[in-house]
Design brief:
The chain is mainly α and 53 residues long. It has one domain. The protein is built from 3 helices and no strands. It starts with a helix and ends with a helix.
Length: 53
Amino acid sequence: MSNYEKNPLVHSNRQRANNPSAWVASFCCAKLRPLIICRGPIRKEVMDVLVEM
């Protein structure tokens, strides 16, 4: 297991849509569909973060 997967700060709750603060909720990325142009572990990390968001 890598340090990335063990770090509790990395996997904190990233879902912003239901936050009581309108300002925080404005950062919701639920409908974001980015084009990832890279390979390897960086791509995996980006995909994991987007799933959590």
